Amino acid sequence: MVGPDGLIGADGTDGVEGAIGAGGATATGPAADPDPDATAVAVAGFHADWAAMLRTGHGAAVRPGVLNPLIARTAELLHRAAREHPFRPELAEQAGALLIDNQFTDPQLLSEGVQLIQRQPVPDDRGPALGGAFAAGWAAALRERTLREQEAIRLAADTARQEVEKALRASEARFRALFESAAIGIGLGDTDGNILAVNRALGEIFGGGPEDMTGVRVNDLVHPEDTPGVWEAYEELISGKREYFQFDKPYYRRDGEVVWTHLTVSLIRDDDGVPLYQVAMLEDVTDRYRLQERLRHQATHDPLTGLPNRAAFFERLEKIFEEPEPDARFGLCYVDLDGFKIVNDSLGHDMGDQLLTVVARRLENALSPLGHMVARLGGDEFVVLLENCRSEQEAVAAAKTVLAALTKPVVIGDHRLAVGASVGVLERRIATTTPGAAVRAADLTLYRAKEAGRGRWTLFDPKENARAVSRYAVSVRMPAALDRGEFFIDYQPMVDLASGAMTGVEALVRWRHPQLGVLGPEEFVGVAEETGLIMPLGRWVLEQACEQAADWVARFGDRAPRLSVNLAVRQARNAGLVGDIERTLRSTGLDPSMLQLEITESTVVGPEDEALKALHALVDMGVSLSVDDFGTGWSNLAYLRDLPVSNLKIAGSFVGDLHDPAKDTHLGWRIVSGLVSLAHTLGLSVTAEGVESRADAERLRLMGCDLAQGWHFGRPVRPAEIARRIAEADLEAAPEPGLGYES
């Protein structure tokens, strides 16, 4: 459509509606920038440069009523393409097409425009993609315009042929004028492939005159880089099976240089439909082709090292997965430099960049001659792709080559930098995996090499990979699992060894994972600690467990079990711990004396630790403390003296080791007895974990151990089962000491 100011818009718009505002956002633009003033300055600067470029020389023949809206509209489209998320390349393409629609066809304009676009600051490194999209839109529009001109010429040529039959002399003059003055190359040939005539423009494309092309056969113009199918299409045309075809095709000039053309060949028939001639029209697109090649190289290669980048690597990797042979194999060596961050931090990023350049050159020189692709994925991560890998040994050999290439120090200026690497090696049948899964597996294998001590290669292990993937799946889903109600709490009985009565329960959180099934705390609490998710999870467990304990108190009175809840180290060190517990007890109505918190020996690291003050505050509130898994850590008795605890829990591993034939069980029982005596000397009660037999329970009772828990007394169960046991205990007589253990 043509707007009231005469500006023809590729999208039908005609004015400056949606022009760039002070903040750089449009009606459909992104969220506000973190620094609106800086964005406004950048936008204004780009708009001014863009307007100056279009007005200087290129826009001299365009009247202001068209030029000004054109400047505003194209600048707006480019700004939106630079800022909006997700990235919309069609906006930049539309800007390029608008310039062609309004007569801006000078290739110099394209070059200047791409440079200007890539100089403006844009988020997430989309500068090359933005410039490429603009160039693509400009080139596509120019091509469409040229095709329309070519079609007009073809129609004119056909008209000229008909006029020759009616009035030879007049029509031939018109055709000759069109033929000779055309801006694109035109050649006329017979159906046997002989070139009969060419115009001056076509002779110039080939670096000579029209006379140099006359008598040449079309088949002599084959080029090794011809597009697949071009000669099949030519055979179909001269045989009359098709009317025309179009291809981008290279030719050799007379001086040996290569010229790229956009070729359109049409068939001319007589009145009876018999093929007579072929008319070829060639547009020299060498500059455009080279520009596209440069843009593609920039898009697929790392600007620092010159190696293929992540996009090029995945393109190559995915290609080998397209139609592999049944037994085809491949290999990956995922490489990460050891200690690179130290170089960056201590010597500066410029030194780090120089180091990366040397490393890239060494890897390429060592591995490219072997036929392997070396790519830089980002930072100090590289990857080696082995296509048609013959065996696991070949992949390992490539990893050893990587390490050998980095053995010698890198000399940069006055610095001799020792550089090493860790390598994760994967070798698989293509049919057994996918590109994404293979890269993830190689990456996880790399980190196993890092954990094993660095400076080495580690081979992919399916079992280790499965564990790592499961761990990753747990960490990814955990943040939303609480909201989805996937966690629940089981309670394990704690029994008084003297009376056999259930006097307490330990709250144990479980996760009903939709893919992995029910997970115990050992499978996700560690991840929660690492990620900080233990804070909301621990708060939820405490609230749910206290609410359940308060319900038992309301139903069973003094027969209700005392609640024991584990407290993670990060929770104990949290400044809001005392307030959280105080609010929880108040909201649930649970008496503080009914709550025992279990802490580990590593919770408090010294008498001045802030966590120690919080623990004293909890005890002053009426909550009791127990040291969990006592004996597995450092067991600093001085700290134990300072801790306000009232109970020690002997780790279940101690009791379990008492039945290990490879260990001295007599000594083991003496250690347990010593721990019980130590606790009693300090005025503490003792709970034994992991008790699985009546004999162990009886022996612990005779030692004076106060409480015990384990499968002998009951596995972790749902709250309803705990309530059932309390109710049944009311109906039974109290058992004799030492004889009332549940089997």
TrEMBL record:
CDD domains: EAL, GGDEF, PAS. InterPro entries: Biofilm_reg_signaling (IPR052155), EAL_dom (IPR001633), EAL_sf (IPR035919), GGDEF_dom (IPR000160), Nucleotide_cyclase (IPR029787), PAC (IPR001610), PAS (IPR000014), PAS-assoc_C (IPR000700). Residues 328-462 form the GGDEF domain. Pfam families: EAL (PF00563), GGDEF (PF00990), PAS_4 (PF08448). It comes from the Bacteria. Gene3D superfamilies: 3.30.70.270, EAL domain (3.20.20.450), PAS domain (3.30.450.20). Residues 245-297 form the PAC domain. Residues 471-730 form the EAL domain. SUPFAM superfamilies: EAL domain-like, Nucleotide cyclase, PYP-like sensor domain (PAS domain). PROSITE patterns: EAL, GGDEF, PAC, PAS. Residues 171-241 form the PAS domain. PANTHER family: BIOFILM ARCHITECTURE MAINTENANCE PROTEIN MBAA (PTHR44757:SF2), DIGUANYLATE CYCLASE DGCP (PTHR44757). This is Cyclic Di-GMP phosphodiesterase RmdA.
